[in-house]
Amino acid sequence: MPQRSSWSVDDVPDLHGRTALVTGATKGIGLETAKVLASRGAVVLLGARSRIRGAAAQAQVRGQAPRAEVIVVPLDLADLASVEQAAALIAEEHPKLDILCNNAGVMGTPLRHTDDGFELQFGTNHLGHFALTGRLLPQLVAAPAARVVTVASQNHRMGRLDLDNLDGRAGYRRWRAYGQSKLANLLFAFELHRRAQAGSLGLTSVAAHPGYAGTDLQRVGPRMEQARTRERAVMVANRLFSQSPHAGALPSLYAATAPDVEGGDYVGPDGPAEVWGRPTKVSAARQAYDRELARQLWDVSEELTGVRFDLPVPAAS
User: Fold this and answer.
1) Rounded to a whole number, what is the largest CA-CA distance in the chain?
2) How far apart are CA 120 and CA 106, in angstroms?
3) How far apart are the C-alpha atoms of 149 and 172, rounded to whole Å?
4) How far is C-alpha 261 from the chain's CA centre?
5) Which residues contact 46 (CB under 8 A, 6 or more apart)?
6) Full-prediction pTM beyond 0.70?
7) Which residues are catalytic?
8) CB-based contacts of 296-301 (< 8 A; 24+ apart in sequence)
9) Which residues face 150 on adjacent strands?
């Protein structure tokens, strides 16, 4: 059992003078994360695929934090050109970035490929965020104590990294592919911590997972296949068993702002099986800490995205 926690949004510190980017900020956990960061005084950049949904989210955040500076950044993580454009726009307007919340994702989708030919879940959940973080590294390093929070999932435990079939063309199982993408999130977060540490950078890389939060994420796969019965079943399960998106955002907020967070930490709910509860430090599956696997994933990710981090490779332990 994780250690019990009493942490809440009331514990989020004052964030005036800090800039945060939240991907997937138009709904669900990303939107709730953005609302709290803005209410504490941060300049909040909302990563949004749709300008219309971005404007709607901007209005919602400003409704909760009327004095906040809230900016919509067009960003499609399934398109590396969009990632590059978004990073360039951010770099032009914001010389430093204090918080990067790699939150956006897709789940349980049928076999689809991104504009760059990547399997959709791996391409969006991992490669898009890998490329975004790498392109924003100068702005993160420019901040005095930046944090990168990568949102994973308990489903990483069923993931196995198949480096010979990352595109799904040699066989595809949607939930195994989702687990693979979430395992990749953790391998990346922990390896980024090790490389930042090896480079003596004031950059903290951590991961978080929301438990079971009832958001639109669970409905994406059934909608793509027009599987209405499955979509209705998901909606019923969400109503019966999930916690709210606000509660699901607490681990991300803790990871992004709590003073006791250290590089390589993993934050999730403190309840049974980490399904619900308040945020606390938890442990990932053993394979998420596999340094050789993380190094292999890093090399493949740089090759696939064309984005290389100016960071030293940590010594083998």
Assistant:
1) 52
2) 8
3) 28
4) 17
5) 22, 25, 26, 34, 54, 57, 58, 61, 70, 71, 72, 73
6) yes
7) 178
8) 296/161, 296/163, 297/161, 297/163, 297/184, 297/187, 297/188, 297/191, 298/188, 298/191, 300/163, 300/166, 301/126, 301/127, 301/130, 301/188
9) 102, 207
- Name the phi and psi angles at 24, rounded to 5: 60, 45
- The number of residues making up the chain comes to 317
Structure tokens given for 60: 């919602």
Cα(54)–Cα(298) distance, integer angstroms: 31
CA-closest candidate to residue 176, choices 132, 122, 127, 130: 122
Interatomic CA distance for residues 305 and 46, integer angstroms: 23
196-234 core/surface letters (b: 16 or more CB in 10 A; e: else): bbeeebebbbbbbbbbbbbbebbbbbbeeeeeeebbeeb
Q: What is the 3-state secondary structure (H, E, C) of 27-67?
A: CHHHHHHHHHHHHCCCEEEEEECCHHHHHHHHHHHHHHCCC
> Token pair for residue 189?
């977060």
What pLDDT was estimated at residue 4? Answer: 76
Strand locations in the chain (E): 19-22, 43-48, 70-74, 99-102, 146-151, 203-208, 266-269, 279-281
Choose among 180, 134, 187: nearest CA to 160.
180
| Cα–Cα dist 168/43, whole Å | 39
Written as six digits, the tokens of 13 are 């510190």
Joined together, the tokens standing for residue 116 give 């760059």
Interval 267-316: pLDDT, tens: 999 988 888 889 999 999 999 999 999 999 999 999 999 999 988 888 77
| Two structure tokens written together for 126 | 């991992």
Q: What is the dihedral of CA 4, 9, 13, 18, to 10 degrees?
A: 120
Which range (18-27, 74-83, 140-149, 168-177) has the least confidence?
168-177
Residue 262, Cβ density class (10 Å: 0-12 exposed, 13-18 middle, ≥19 buried): exposed
